[in-house]
Each structure stands twice: as structure tokens, then as C-alpha cells.
Amino acid sequence: MTHHHQTTEDVDPDCPRCQEETTQYWTDVEAWKLRTAVEMATDGTGHASPSALMLRLGQDHGIRVTFEEAQALLNRLETAGVVGPADGWTHAHPVLMRREQALVALSLPVV
């Protein structure tokens, strides 16, 4: 991860380059989570929910997120027009875009 450190524990909080690398790392992690949310939302079921996203991240990637974190990711998708407003009972969001459209709307690379 770092330019002159062996592990993340060695990162110097006063080092500008370390700060830049740490910021980039967390930016990459958030972009990855957002991309996973897009993939889950556009998997063909027609809806996306925080519970499904939590399950996908946990089972497929070993990443634990809270319901609130999953909901925040889906709120970002809603803001970008990828999904519609959540159903009050199930918290499910209807999917409004195909995967490629969603990635472009969120400025994520289309691979």
C-alpha cells in the first residue's frame, strides 16, 4: 500500500504522501462498494434492498456493512437515478437503469 512503509500500521499520519495514499485507498474501497451495489441492483431481479446488498457484500466478498451503510449506498444510487424510491415496508428500491447506464451515471468505469 505505501511508499516507504511495510504495513498499514507503519503509516505516518504527518506524512503528506501517506495521507494521500490512505485517502486514495478509502476512495477506492467506497467506489468498489458502490460498484457492487450497482451490480446487485442490476442483476435482473428488478429491485434492490439494503438486506440484499448486505448479504451480497457479506457472502460474496466477506465485507460486513450495517443496514444503514447499505441504505446509504442505495440512497446514492437513488440520487443518481439508478433506482427509484424505496418501498416503505420492504425497503426495496425499483431498478430504473441497466448496469452500463448506472455505472456511467455514477462516473464509475464500465468494464
Task: State the main characteristics.
111 residues, mainly alpha, two-stranded antiparallel sheet, 2 strands, 4% strand, globular
Could you name the ranges where pLDDT drops below 50 across 5 or more consecutive residues? Answer: none
Please count the beta strands (DSSP E, at least 2 residues each).
2
Helix coverage percent of residues?
Answer: 40-55%
Using only C-alpha atoms, the radius of gyration works out to 16 Å
How far the N terminus sits from the C terminus, by CA atoms, comes to 24 Å
Largest sheet: 2 strands, antiparallel
Into which percentage range does the β-strand content fall? under 5%
Shape: globular
* Mean pLDDT score: 83
Taken in chain order, the helices and strands follow as: HEHHEH
Q: Can you put this structure into words, describing what you see?
A:
- Helices cover 52% and strands 4% of the residues.
- It contains four helices and two strands; from the N terminus they run H-E-H-H-E-H.
- It starts with 15 loop residues before the first helix and ends in a 6-residue tail after the last helix.
Protein topology:
Blueprint: H1 16-41, E1 47-48, H2 50-61, H3 67-79, E2 93-94, H4 99-105
Antiparallel strand pairs: 1-2
Helix pairs in contact: 1-2, 1-3, 2-3
In short:
By secondary structure, the chain is mainly α. The chain contains four helices and two strands.
